Amino acid sequence: MATLKTKILGINFENPFLLASAPPTALIESIDMAFEMGWGGAVLKTITPDDLEMNEASPRYAVLKDKRNIIGLQNIELLSHKTIKYWCDGIKFLKQKHPTKVIIASIMAPVNKTAWQDIVKTLNNTPADAFELNFSCPHGMPEKGIGMAIGTDREISATITKWVKEVAQKPVFVKLSPNVSDITEIALAVENAKADGLAAINTVQGFMGLDLKTLRPILDVNGKTTFGGCSGTMVRPIGLRCVAQIRQASSLPILGQGGISTWEDAVQYIAVGSDAVQICTEVMLNGYKIIGPMLKGLQNYLEEKSFANISALKNKAIEVLTAHKDLQKTTLAYPQINHEKCGRCGKCVTICMESEHQALQLNDGNIVVDKERCVGCGLCRFVCPAGAITPRQ
Ligand SMILES: Cc1cc2nc3c(=O)[nH]c(=O)nc-3n(C[C@H](O)[C@H](O)[C@H](O)COP(=O)(O)O)c2cc1C
User: Fold this and answer.
1) Could you tell which of 52, 70, 172, 231 is best to mutate to test the pocket of ligand 1, judged by most ligand atoms within 8 Å of the CB?
2) pLDDT tier at 145 (50, 70, 90 boundaries)?
3) How far from 191 is each of 131, 175, 352, CA to CA, in Å?
4) Domains in the chain, start-ordered, CATH in brackets?
5) Burial, 182: exposed, middle or buried (Cβ in 10 Å; 0-12, 13-18, 19+)?
């Protein structure tokens, strides 16, 4: 029988699913409800010094949809508006009621040693299990030198990590920004500064676009907008890439996140190096109840694949990632056409004709592959509405 229980930095996790620091962890009573429903832990909405001024804009969200579904969110929300006392009392209440749940206090402060150390010292006196340093919010608040302004700078990231480690009495995770050209540089800088673990990714900076009728922004704050943080399904490939890159460079524990909406997504993150996962946008769109199918799905998967636990799955796929120069280049994945399934719509012929290779033709009612011209790029397979094309090596 596989177990979802896991241990990271000496902290026992009932299961590897944590709520990420965000609106679903902004209120103690909501976190209480989420714990009742099965979440393994929560990273609290980022706590800041009480005197840090924060003014929110309205509205603060916009979504990206494919034809039917929401595939991502852009937000311009700032940090927790609750006081440090609210969080200290709340953490005590939650731990008393749910002693087996993991609580991670996310924190952010201006670039000032006293400000960071004061907040850590206060939260040291709570039963929170760990800290997460939010160095990575893209919009909150670079003009004050915080958020992503920290996480895109190696030296500032390392300096603040050292300040925190000098006084922290709990393990310290650093939450990294994907909005850098090389996330491993920052990961290694904070590792050298003695961070105990890493969390990745925070939101990806983006711009949701315009309403074409009015040419006003979709995230319209009185006619203006700003670059915000994108999250949800649309950022998953970026999150997976970042986690895999960090894992290739570092052996610190990683709390993987970015676009996880199903247990299958969680498996992907664990297989490329995450020790546990965090989820925000999917909860904002569908509620805490998503945890039920996630727990069941992951448990079944571990059992089917004979993985005894999360550690057995962790890193299992990291070696599939290599440099382009090291990929095998001697065989071509020619398209194999299933003529029974093929609807003769000609879509594959058109895209092949117009995307360089001109290797597919409709001859006597059948799609024919010209192997002299085909480079095995694989595009035809994805545009076929009938699923009639598979690659053959
Ligand atoms: C509305 C919103 C508010 C967020 N607030 C915070 C925050 O206060 N602190 C933080 O570290 N991350 C914050 N995040 C980032 C999430 O914790 C998470 O890293 C990111 O959304 C990617 O995960 P997802 O795709 O599951 O949403 C926020 C995200 C959203 C959408």
Assistant:
1) 231
2) confident
3) 15, 12, 47
4) 6-320 (3.20.20.70), 328-392 (3.30.70.20)
5) exposed
22 in contact with ligand 1, CB cutoff 6 A: yes
Q: Residue with the nearest Cα to atom 23 of ligand 1?
A: 258
SS (H, E, C) 84-106: HHHHHHHHHHHHHHCCCCEEEEE
User: What is the token pair recorded at 100?
Assistant: 């087996």
Nearest to 34 by CA among 50, 19, 14: 19
Distances (CA, A) of 181 to 151, 178, 184, 385: 12, 8, 9, 36
d(CA 130, CA 174): 11
Do 216 and 62 form a contact (C-beta atoms < 8 A)? no
Say whether 44 sits in a helix, a strand or coil.
Answer: coil
- Cα separations in angstroms, 51 against 54, 119, 143, 149: 9, 12, 16, 20
Distance between CA atoms of residues 173 and 195, nearest Å: 6
Cis bond upstream, residue 351 (ω within 30): no
Tell whether ligand 1 has an atom less than 6 A from the beta carbon of residue 261.
no
Q: How far is CA 390 from the centre of its chain?
A: 31
CB atoms within 10 A of CB 240: 23
Place 393 in a pLDDT band, splitting at 50, 70 and 90.
low
Name which of 83, 13, 77, 37 is nearest 283 in CA terms.
37
pLDDT tens track for 88-133: 999 999 999 999 999 999 999 999 999 999 999 999 999 999 999 9
